[in-house]
């Protein structure tokens, strides 16, 4: 039902709410139709305080439907979602999920479409958001999610060490693998690590994209044992073989904070830790194969608002949910303070935000175009293999060929098992 019709049904919705409360419905209907929006999200780290502050600020505006924050560990939340949706009981009114989850939820018929619900919210539209965060929410011609942010991978660097070992490397704000090797060899003479081998997934995926590779060509079958895939993981292994990277067992964050590491590939959200450094640091693009700006790729993801199917969610409450999302669009500075980049372009008008290191990733259309979300439906299976075996390839414990063939086989086998169980 379109939002413009929702208000007309206010009395009917209110009557339904009263009836369900009186019946003491155990299926979650009374809770769903209360004057409260139950909001599940996976923000339990340092960003938990930021999301709580945002919600408190919204509730102080005295909305008809106040938001109840329910933050839980990511793994717990994702395991609970299919259980509650399939049972039809205690389904949250609003949820934050990672971009890579949306295709599977949609294909499993778990999501409520926003199509037709945004008529009264004219500013919730494509031109007011970072394109990569906005576009992925539209599947088969319908919108199934709305973006909160777009968070990405970059490279932190020690400015003092940069001046000593690679004074001109970042004149163009692009750090290439060749520049890393050159600077790393100089730094190694002083027992300084050139670059950290960190979270394999974003490092591999960003380089895979630069190599011209894809996780899948048709969106279903993986294409992971390819020359592009071998080159992508091999490029990171070369840093280890060249002796310019961190070694197995070393703590990259601690090395960086102690001034013993030049380049630290990490997420923009790590700033709460990086701020503990007692030296000047900077943030630039993730390592690149080329200094051609049109070829730069920074692995990205996005926290997205979704509504899971819930027959008991009233039209009146749906309007309250959209009121909250619309408010977030122009009140996202607190989320930026968590080290995130809000997806709303309204944030670019804020002077305080402009001073934040991560702001340069969305400050220009050119830089926005570097952000790439690898929203393959079976991204989770790729991630599981990378988490289990990625460092073995980086530290030369397995061959590049065995790594990519194993990646292809494991993802293919898990997809096949999924299809068999349907």
Question: Can you say what the CATH homologous superfamily of the largest domain is?
Answer: Periplasmic binding protein-like II
The rounded distance between the terminal residues' Cα atoms is 31 Å
Taken together, the total number of domains comes to 2
| Strand content bin | 5-15%
CATH topology of the largest domain: D-Maltodextrin-Binding Protein, domain 2
Protein name: Extracellular solute-binding protein
InterPro entries: Bact_solute-bd_prot1, SBP
Pfam families: SBP_bac_8
Descriptive tags:
422 residues; globular; D-Maltodextrin-Binding Protein, domain 2; 19 helices; alpha/beta; Extracellular solute-binding protein; Bact_solute-bd_prot1; 5-stranded mixed β-sheet; single chain; SBP
Indicate the topology:
Blueprint: H1 3-6, H2 10-23, H3 29-32, E1 36-41, H4 47-59, E2 66-71, H5 74-87, E3 94-98, H6 102-107, H7 131-135, E4 138-139, E5 142-143, E6 146-147, E7 151-158, H8 159-165, H9 177-188, E8 193-195, H10 200-210, H11 227-241, H12 252-257, E9 261-267, H13 271-274, E10 281-285, E11 298-301, E12 303-306, H14 315-329, H15 333-336, H16 351-354, H17 365-368, E13 371-373, H18 379-394, H19 400-421
Protein name: Extracellular solute-binding protein
